[in-house]
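Database export, one record per block. Field names are fixed; values are copied verbatim from the stored entry.
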Amino acid sequence: MRYAFLTTWLLECPRERIWEALRDAESWPEWWRGVERVTVLTPELRYLIAWRSRIPYDLEFEFDVQELDPPRSMKGEAVGELTGTGHWRLFEQDGVTAVLYDWNVRTTKAWMNVLAPVARPVFEYNHNIVMRWGGEGLARRLDCNLLAAG
């Protein structure tokens, strides 16, 4: 089953500080609730990321960073229990940084695909919660104000 998500965080924080935190994927479990572990496979390019959400199921996938435009954009590809593409974009104006994350994936776990016709809203809710946790955790990590997360 395919999913397309757009997450937006607005933080009263310099873009460069946010960029540094997002690029340091190995530290995500320290501040991003739901990220169970990040294993560096190739420094700053390839990671194995394990997630656990409010609804208790685990997801694990490799993420390969393919395009970088510091501190504005980072694109990559996921392969594993979620397969697809992710794209972080950061925009700053007047001390506020908008962080946008496009996540276009499909599930590969058989049970998720079987349940998708009825459970899709639950899976989408779960994704949104985990992403909200990310915005909240990032704001705490950087001691910045989170103005909006959605």
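Remark 1: The first strand starts at residue 2 and ends at 12.
Remark 2: The radius of gyration is 15 Å.
End of record.
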